[in-house]
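quick one
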Amino acid sequence: MSKRFYITTAIDYVNGQPHLGHAYEKIIADVIARARRSLGEDVFYLTGLDEHGQKVQQAAIAEGKTPQAYCDALAADWQAFAKKLELTNDDFVRTTQPRHKAYVQAQLAKLHAAGHFYKAGYTGFYSAKEETFLTEKDRQADGKFDTSYGDVVELKEDNYYFKLGAHQQWLIDYIEANPDFIAPSYRRNEVLGFLKNNKLEDLCISRPLARLNWGIPLPFDPEFVTYVWFDALVNYASIAAAHPELGLWPADIHVIGKDIVKFHAVYWPIMLKAMELPLPKQVLVHGWWQKDGAKISKSTGNIIDPIAVINEWGLDAFRFYVLRELDIGPDGNWTDAGFRSRYQAELANGLGNLVNRSLSMLKRYRNGVVPEKSTELAADAAKAADETRALLQQNQLQAALQSIWGLVNRANQYVDQTAPFKLAKDPAQAQRLDEVLYNLAETCRVLAVLLNPFLPGTSAKIYAQLGLIGTPDKLADASWGGLPPGHTIGEPAALFPRKDEPKK
Ligand code: MSP
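structure w/ 5'-O-[(L-methionyl)-sulphamoyl]adenosine:
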């Protein structure tokens, strides 16, 4: 049996409510997971929460709660959010779970025994807000640290360090020998540039209890807890180990945002090497969303609440916009006008109109009974199916949607060219009308199959309106001719109701 395809997202800090950026990443991973299942692979999709560390501890204190009670309350919101997005995740990790903590401690003990750590003293300027020591390079021209670091204090403390630096050349060689390890390629080049031009410092993997107690205790020194990133990255392996019967490790894809590449493409591979585990096949890096050309920020109110958008427009409209608007890689910009315009043009007038008029005409002119097979649009459908399959295998989600809309537009154009409403008026054209109606209904069926990973709800609706049983979740079913003549379709209904323009 082939190995299960194992895909993960970053685990989110549980110090607030989910926003567009979090939703985007989970949707990318969900589409890839659904696509791989549709291609016949066994898949395991993991997402979850990063619950330890200073940020969470501070947020809990600010609300007058214990960190655990704070995390438990928010974890319920985040799990409900995953449901709202209809993610097909197979597990949901919380780093406060015993299964994860025990695994992290076992790895730490093993690495310590094998001599990968050493203890040393350090004096430096510490930003609690960013949970990091700052260096001289971080000072501004006036000698001060930027206000974005919050209060910066001078600290002296002992800590444990992981001998990261020793593996620098090995990592460069690995990335050069495995060109797909970091995607897109410009992110790979950035990592290589960084590794070739900087000396890798050893990584501080502990925090003294006096400064932070919300973390996993070091198994070999009770005076310290584990640095939150060392704890968080391990989730990918700890949860794989929690399902030993599935043989999940190594992961196939870690989907992450561009701000955390160094952790996933530098620290994590070296940690895995020390842990004597194989490396994930790919770190897939997406860009960041802005709104109206400015940073998304709670404090300035420049935010998009995914739940509000979904409640107003439907989940598939939200999934469609983020996937169609932005390729995996560059940064994107959300505008409400852009969202409305894609909804009207591509969903309501494009896909929705095609399905609605195709099925309504079949109902009206042939009582909903599918006519004899015809292959006039078969080549167009095959082209879209072949392209979609190939693009999905390369995680090119935006391009796959463009190809699918090539078929939507072709079929809408076919309606205009063949004018079935005119054919219906002329009894001598009955056979021609049969042909046209078959081509349209069958194109709708193919579209349901191709759209399934992206817009699962819409795909299921198209299937149900075609009167078909089951779910169109196998890409192999996109081949032309699946709709049997003589079959009676279901009831057509608008997929994307038109929305009035907002009142001026
Ligand atoms: N907890 C760490 C990740 C640990 S993974 C072992 C973390 N959490 S986060 O909540 O800050 O970010 C989670 C993910 O959301 C990251 O991949 C991040 O890049 C992504 N995004 C956060 N804001 C974003 C946008 N505005 N746009 C797109 N993605 C964004 O980092």
